[in-house]
Design goal:
Blueprint (H helix, E strand, L loop, with lengths): L2 E6 L8 H12 L4 E6 L24 H11 L3 E7 L7 H8 L9 E7 L5 H10 L6 E2 L4 E3 L3 H4 L8 H4 L5 H23 L1
Parallel strand pairs: 1-2, 1-3, 3-4, 4-5, 4-6
């Protein structure tokens, strides 16, 4: 079965991103094995290695970074859930990507964002960064424009009014999960 990680891209106190990640996790678990990777559980120093990880065959990552690298490598695909801060994803999420070498090579990534414009600019920034670590961003993304605090409860359940909307975010999320699983299966052949 396909293994998918849902990455919570914020560590801020009082964040809403974990609610959105819980909702996404519920959708993924219907189609694949899923594990939530909360960046709070992977505190790492900011990237300061003298050579890009992809071009350093003698790299010796510090233990905190190695823990992250080992965990990320376990999965076939990813859902990155991010807020948008100042028209970009969080610095902690960008750093978690910057330390990667080949762990996401030829693996698909679904992008789920929230913010005043649904996180559109955070997604645009991630679409630029992800190919640098060999990842394949899905063509579509989920831009959550409703207030996460009131739209999703602590257990990751979307409010009934949004669930009943035939054009609501759950339709987009369902399509995105289906595409992610299909890409993950297809890209396994590329990885050999």
């Amino acid at each position: 079965m396909t293994k998918i990680a849902v990455i919570i891209g914020s560590t801020r106190e009082g964040r809403m991103t974990d609610k959105l990640a819980n909702w996404a996790t519920k959708a993924v678990e219907q189609k694949a094995d899923v594990e939530v990777l909360d960046l709070r559980d992977y505190p790492m120093p900011y990237f300061d290695e003298p050579i890009s990880p992809r071009y350093n065959p003698e790299r010796k990552a510090v233990p905190e970074v190695q823990k992250w690298l080992d965990k990320v490598a376990e999965f076939d695909a990813y859902v990155i859930v991010t807020p948008e801060y100042n028209r970009a994803p969080t610095a902690v999420l960008k750093n978690a990507l910057d330390v990667l070498a080949y762990e996401m090579d030829h693996k698909p990534v679904a992008l789920v964002a929230h913010g005043s414009t649904g996180g559109a600019q955070a997604v645009a920034s991630l679409r630029i960064a992800l190919p640098g670590v060999g990842a394949v961003a899905l063509p579509q993304a989920l831009f959550f424009t409703d207030q996460v605090a009131s739209a999703i409860d602590e257990d990751g359940v979307l409010q009934a009014e949004l669930q009943d909307n035939p054009y609501g975010p759950q339709v987009n999320l369902g399509n995105q999960v289906d595409t992610l699983v299909a890409f993950a299966e297809a890209l396994k052949t590329v990885r050999g």
